Amino acid sequence: MIRLILDGEALVLPEGTSVAAALAASGDDHARSDLAGRPRAPFCGMGICQECRVCIDGRRRLACVTLIREGMKVERTR
Amino acid sequence: MNERLPRECELLIVGAGPAGMAAACAAADHGISVVVIDDNPAPGGQIWRGGPRVNLPPRARALRERFERLPGLRLCSATRVIDAPTPRRLLVEREHDAGVIDYHRLLLCTGARERLLPFPGWTLPGVTGAGGLQALIKGGLTVRGERIAIAGSGPLLLACAATVRAQRGRLVALAEQAPWSELASFTMELWRWPAKLAQAIALASPRYRAASRLIEALGERRLEAVVIESLGERREIACDRLACGFGLVANTELAQLLGCALGERGISVDQHQATSVAGVYAAGECTGPGGSELALIEGRIAGLAAADQYPLAAALSRRRARWQAFAAQLEQHFALDSSRLPPRRATTLVCRCEEVTLGELETHSDWRRAKLASRCGMGACQGRVCAAATAQLFGWPPPPPRPPLSPARIDSLLLGGMKEVQE
Ligand SMILES: Cc1cc2nc3c(=O)[nH]c(=O)nc-3n(C[C@H](O)[C@H](O)[C@H](O)COP(=O)(O)OP(=O)(O)OC[C@H]3O[C@@H](n4cnc5c(N)ncnc54)[C@H](O)[C@@H]3O)c2cc1C
Ligand code: FES
User: Fold this and answer.
1) Cβ neighbours for B303, distance < 8 A, ≥ 6 positions apart
2) Per-residue pLDDT for A78 more than 80?
3) Are A14 and B140 a contacting pair at CB < 8 A?
4) Which of B51-55, B297-301, B360-364, B395-399 has the least mean pLDDT?
5) At a CB cut-off of 8 Å and minimum separation 6, what does B220 contact?
6) What pLDDT does residue B421 have?
7) pLDDT value at position B419?
8) Residue of B101, B118, B279, B411 with fewest CB within 10 Å of its CB?
9) Alpha-carbon torsion B395, B396, B401, B406, what sign?
10) Where does the pLDDT of residue B122 fall: very low under 50, low under 70, confident under 90, or very high at 90 and above?
11) pLDDT (0 to 100) of residue B244
12) How many angstroms is it from B234 CA to the middle of ligand 2?
C-alpha cells in the first residue's frame, strides 16, 4: 500500500493506482476548476484532453498517466 | 529514479501498445537494437495497460513478458515525444528530465484516441470517454455499486460495459447510435473472424439499445442523470457516471510533424508499413483504427521490414488482409449518422480548454478563422479533442500540428533547440 497526500489529506491506496483514480478515491474526482470555477475531472483517461492536470510535487502533471508514489503530494489546480 | 535516457539507437519505436511491442519483438529477433518510448507508466497501450484492477489475458501477458525481456531493448515508459527538431532525431520529456534521441529508423505505433463529441453537460465530472472509463478503472478507479450509463458508437462501448459489470458497477443504459439493421449485418459477417464472434457473444448485454441518441448530461456540479432517445422516446436516466465515445481517430500528429503523408483513416503506409518519409514506418491504429489483432500483425510486419527481413514480412500479408477486412466491416457498420449524434445547441462548449461554444464556432467558415477569432484549440490539449469534434460537426479538416506536441517545460524545449544551434 502507498500513502500520498492529496490537498493536505493522507490517502492510502494500492500500488499501481493512477493519480486520477486516487482523486476519485478521495470522494471528489475533480482535478481542476474551469474559468468560472466549476469543477473539471479526468475525461479521456489517456493523456489527451489535459482535463486531469494537477500539481504533483510542485510540477504540473497529468493525473491519468501518473502512478501514485509513497509520500507524493498532489494538489488540485485552479 | 530512472536510468539515463538513451542517446541513439538503430530502431526507435514510439508506442508500447500491441503494435509497438510486436514490432520490437520481431526486430529484436533479427539482432536490431530497439528503444521504445511510451507515455504510459507501463507497456501495453490502450488495451493492455497494467494496473491494480487488471487481469491481462494470457496472450497479452505472454507478449508483454517476452517484450520486456528482449535482449538489447531499452524501454522508456512515462516518456513523451514532444518534437522532432531535426531529421532522425526526436525530443522526449519525462517527469524530471528531457533529452534527444537519434535514430537510424523510426517506427510510429502511436495508436488512436476516442472521438469525443460535444453535448450539453459533457464537461461535468462523472462524464468520461468509454475507453477513458476503461483506462480509469484499470488505473484503480472503483465503480462498485455505481449506476453507469454508456452511450455513443462502436465496440468499445461493449468492452466498457463488460468491464463495468466485472467491477460490479450497475449498467443503467447502453446506447448505440447505429441501427439494428447495421448491427445485425455486422454480426452476420463475424463468422469470418470466429474469435470476434465469440467475443461479441461474450460481450452481449440485455441493456444494449440500437438507434439511440445521446441528448444531454444533467447535473449541477457533478453528473446526476443522462437523457437518451431511443425509438423516438426520450428518457431521463439517473446515473453516477456516463461513459461516451464515437469511435476512434488515429493519432497522426507526430507523423505529420515528420512530414509523413496521411490517408483517409490515418498515416499512409505501403505493403511494408513504410510511410512516405524514408526510414519512417508506421503500424497499428495510427494507420487506421482496426483493433488489437490488426495492430499486432502490422507491428510484426513493420518490425521485420525495419530489420530488412522483407520475405518474412511478405509472408504475413495475407493475415494482415484478413484483419484489414474486419476493420473495414467495423468502419462500415458503425458509421456515424448525423441524425443520431447529440443535438447541436449554441451554448454547448466545444473547446473544453478555452471554453468556446458551438454558437461561437458556427459563425466561421474554417478551423483557422475560428481559432484566430475564438482561441478554440489553443488551450492545454492543443485541439486534440475539439479538432476531431469540429471535423465531425463542420467537416473542417483538422489543423496541422505544431511543436511541442503536448505542453512541455521550457528547459525541455531549449534542449531540442540548443542541440540544433550547437551543430
Ligand atoms: C482510451 C482507449 C481505451 C481502449 N480500450 C480498449 C479495450 O479495453 N479493449 C479493446 O479491445 N480495445 C480498446 N481500445 C482500442 C485499442 O486502441 C486497440 O485495440 C489497440 O490498443 C491498438 O494498439 P496500438 O498498438 O495500435 O495502439 P495503442 O495501444 O493505442 O498504443 C499506442 C501507444 O503510444 C503511446 N503514444 C502515443 N503518442 C505518443 C507520444 N507522442 N509519446 C509517447 N507515447 C505516445 C500511447 O500512450 C500508447 O501507449 C481502446 C482505445 C482507446 C483510445
Ligand atoms: S484524463 Fe484526459 S489527459 Fe488525463
Assistant:
1) B11, B22, B23, B24, B25, B26, B27, B107, B283
2) no
3) yes
4) B51-55
5) none
6) 41
7) 47
8) B411
9) negative
10) very high
11) 98
12) 31
CA B216 – CA B119 distance, rounded (Å): 6
Number of helices (H), then strands (E), belonging to chain B: the values are: 14, 19
A58 Cβ under 8 Å from any chain B Cβ:
no
Per-residue model confidence as pLDDT tens digits over B162-183: 999 999 999 999 999 999 999 9
Grid cell locating B373: 477569432
In eight-state DSSP terms, residue B6 is: P
Taking only Cα atoms into account, the Rg of chain A, rounded to an integer number of angstroms, comes to: 11
Question: Cβ < 6 Å from ligand 1: which residues?
Answer: A 45-46; B 14-20, 37-40, 45-47, 80-81, 109-114, 131-132, 134-135, 156, 159, 248, 251, 254, 284-285, 291-292, 295, 405
pLDDT, tens digit, 9 for 90 and up, residues A13-64 = 999 999 999 999 999 999 999 988 999 999 999 999 999 999 999 999 999 9
Assign domain B8-111+251-308 to its CATH superfamily: FAD/NAD(P)-binding domain (3.50.50.60)
DSSP annotation of A40 reads E
Angstrom distance (rounded) from CA B405 to CA B177: 32
Architecture of the B114-248 domain: 3-Layer(bba) Sandwich (3.50)
The amino acid present at B254, given as its one-letter code, is: L
CA distances from B330 to B21, B156, B279, B283 (A): 24, 11, 31, 18
Domain B8-111+251-308 and domain B114-248, same fold? Reply is yes
Report residue B423's pLDDT band, with 50, 70 and 90 as the boundaries. very low
- Residue B292 Cα to ligand 2 midpoint, Å, equals 22
Domain boundaries, chain B: 8-111+251-308, 114-248, 349-394
